[in-house]
Design brief:
By secondary structure, the protein is mainly α. It has a domain at 92-146. It has 5 helices and no strands. The protein is globular and about 55 Å long.
């Protein structure tokens, strides 16, 4: 997340956000609808995985790789998948919620393997599934907005 220019005295760690970035994200989350929050989670997961892929490629080129950032990025993506699991409403459609829960478990397992094996193929595989889920969710939000006559859509 490189929304703001780096200020003097900030760390070089790309995983640390400035106070301004944290405030921006908090405002975005606070003003989002529940549907938009799911999109934010999908987008966040994809961003962490994208950063992880870049870190993986960088480390593969290093004589003495440092896997700390990569592991952190993979851990953050797994954490987001766990939040998505927690957001499932099993009372509305139990079968669908269970299927999605199991898909999230599968994604988490693959992401953990990607971390251990340092596999960009597994990351790509998970990114494809998450991207498809995000696009489907976005389409659902758009259709909901059309039905209600409002603008429930958001650009993701």
């Amino acid at each position: 997340m490189h929304m703001l220019k780096k200020k003097t005295g900030q760390t070089n760690n790309p995983n640390q956000l400035t106070p301004q970035q944290k405030k921006f994200i908090k405002n975005m989350v606070d003003s989002a609808s529940p549907e938009q929050l799911i999109l934010l989670l999908y987008n966040g997961c994809l961003q962490w995985l994208s950063m992880g892929k870049k870190e993986l490629e960088k480390n593969k080129q290093e004589k003495i790789p440092n896997w700390t950032n990569f592991s952190h990025q993979m851990k953050m993506s797994v954490s987001i998948i766990e939040h998505l699991q927690d957001s499932l409403n099993h009372e509305v459609n139990k079968d669908f919620a269970e299927q999605l829960f199991n898909l999230y478990e599968y994604l988490k397992s693959n992401l953990m393997k990607a971390n251990i094996e340092k596999s960009d193929e597994k990351i790509d595989f998970c990114m494809k599934i998450i991207s498809d889920l995000k696009n489907g969710w976005q389409e659902g939000i758009n259709k909901l907005g059309e039905k209600s006559g409002g603008s429930a859509s958001t650009s993701a």
